[in-house]
Amino acid sequence: MAKKDILEGFISDLDMDQKKHDRPSLKDYVPIPTKKNEDIFGDIQQGSMASLKETKREIDELIEERLRLTKEITNDVDKIISQINTMNLSVNISDPTAMMEKLNLLKKKAELEEMKVNEKLNCWRDIADLKKELREWSKELMEKESEKNMLDKILEE
Fold this sequence. Notes:
Layout: H1 2-22, H2 37-90, H3 96-156
């Protein structure tokens, strides 16, 4: 048994020596290249400016979409009004029930005209709000660009 214990100890010593060789030494570690401060500031500035530019682009798209929607609604209302006008021409005014129908059609036409005016007004308000927001984001973007330019000048010196 003593021989077996000696062999097991010898083999475990060999395993320990092997494990020492498997472990990386301090020489194996390569320092991770770090960015210079100016690169870090530049990356931060670029990220925030890209975000601001994206927001401005989205607001511009919302403005265009709102204009398209208003145009579409106005066109649909105009088609309905045109149909009402056609129906009014075909109504015989000598019949009292037909006269009542014609008055109802005129009332609907007036409501549609009012709806069209309200849509234009709401569109103007929505676009005014979006443009106000766009001006705020544009101002912030200009400030960020100005800060970036100042930082670039400072870091160049």
